[in-house]
Amino acid sequence: MSLSSMMSVVAQLENGNAFSQGTQHFGAQVLSVKQDLGLSIMALGYDHADDTPANKAVEILLDDIELNLDSNEKRSVRLTNESLAALCLRESVENINDYLISSLNQEHPPKSEKIIGLAAILLHDNQFYCIATNDIYCFLFGGEELIPLVAPSGDPNPIGVDPALRPEVVSREYSPGNVLLMISVKDITVLGLEFVRLTLSRFKDNMEMVLQQFSVRMRRNGLKHDPALILCCVQYAEKKY
Amino acid sequence: MQKKNTEPDARNALLVVERLLDKLVSKADYSSHVIGFLHDTWKLVLCNIFLTKGESSKHWKHLKKISSMLCWSLQAKNGIEEKRMLVEALPSLLHALSRGLDLIQMEPEQKQEVFKMLAIEHARIIRHSLEIETTGIDKNPASPDKNMLKAQLANLESNTCEIDYILSEEATGDIQVVDINTSSTHSSSDVIQSMDDFSTNVQEGKIQFNDEEIIELVMQQVSLANEEPSETTSDGEHTQNLAIGVWVNFDTSGTINKVGELFWKSRVTGKCVFLNEQGHKIVTISESDLDAELKSGKAELTKVRI
Prior knowledge:
The complex is a heterodimer.
Chain A: H1 3-6, E1 7-12, E2 18-19, E3 22-26, E4 29-34, E5 39-44, H2 52-69, H3 84-104, E6 117-124, E7 127-133, E8 136-142, E9 145-150, E10 170-173, E11 179-184, H4 185-191, H5 193-203, H6 207-220, E12 229-234
Antiparallel strand pairs in A: 1-2, 1-12, 3-4, 4-5, 5-6, 6-7, 7-10, 8-9, 8-11, 11-12
Helix pairs in contact in A: 2-3, 5-6
Chain B: H1 7-25, H2 32-53, H3 58-73, H4 79-103, H5 108-135, H6 148-158, E1 165-169, E2 175-180, H7 188-203, H8 211-222, E3 247-249, E4 259-265, E5 271-275, E6 281-286, H9 287-296, E7 300-302
Antiparallel strand pairs in B: 1-2, 3-4, 3-7, 4-5, 5-6
Helix pairs in contact in B: 1-2, 1-3, 2-3, 3-4, 4-5, 4-7, 4-8, 5-7
């Protein structure tokens, strides 16, 4: 059974554009979904930045995962400390960090316009792997509970600043009915954790309704934009969007 | 999908190209004509390929090699072997330059001027190398001069040493080095004219050769990869086809056991990660640095059975 038939994914940008496959961007946000790889990526630049560093980060991550995750039969070494998927995710994010830092040294725009927050979820071998830096939350909804997988720490840790950045990869087995959510800190603050939990509990088999509820909530709180997010629903018999 | 802004790509292309050229011209003293050609004209060719084919394309990588080779060809040569390599490489180099200039649709007259300038430069290099070899004295240090052509011709005419080789065309069109000796009767200006004619023949396709093979051969022998900026993405003759699962010994001296399998690599940035047999990371290295280590012999490909 292919990954794309085992899950349904929807990504939404701040302008309300929603899609389930491919890469799209709005302002300094870039969202990408590659269902055949089981990979979803969110890259958020700062308000005044263009989308160049975020686009580059997504490009690198997509290519790195595509190249390295499929090559396992060529390797002799067997990992014991971590899985191949976790290693690939971690190495790729560090790779992006190194790339942005080195490109920052040559380019003129101020650093604040060239650093990004980055998060990715990868489904591989019946597990999901999650990595997130700076200003992006990753949640698992399952058993009526909304469980934070990766939450921003007190100290900001954007990509493109600290060469010693060592992001952590969180992994868990997934079960039918699980929903994975990537969303920015500012948007989840507006929506509220309990509202998100209740909405997912009620409408988890209808992602379109989930997005509508979130949108209405944002308007009621005085905001004109929609929340930028990626929702990944695992192993549903019907794919509704 | 929102249309991508192309301005950052052009800016990035210019940045990369200028860094490459700055690095290349910093390696030796080139004449103002050569530097002008590189920064005014050849830069356009580099930008053209960078933007149309991309940084990771083989076209861009090939063009970088040609640029390195051009700069190498304009540096003083030591010994018969280097002069021989220059002579053998010139057809392919000039042909590649000609094709590059076609990309930016240079006028034939302008192209002719470029090749005339290069002919004079190459003749000067060969003569200069020969002078040092025979007299041990550097009478004519390579330094930029506004009236270079006139000054060089005057200098060459007054010199007693003669250029010592003849180029000729066989019926098949192949260019051959006929003779290398120190007793040629050709005058210096004749040689410059010969090289000029030779360049023209190359441009017009009267001379046949295998470009890529010859460029590769010369590049390997003179280790020109070291002249390329390590910051740019480097294909590396050794790392280009280095596949995941390949084993590399990073210490050929045998002092320490540092053998690792290429476990992870990035096509976009060129980063490579090597793990040892126990699955621990031993090396994180860029493709260009790895290529340099393989070339220098500090590292070598090996086979490890687990």
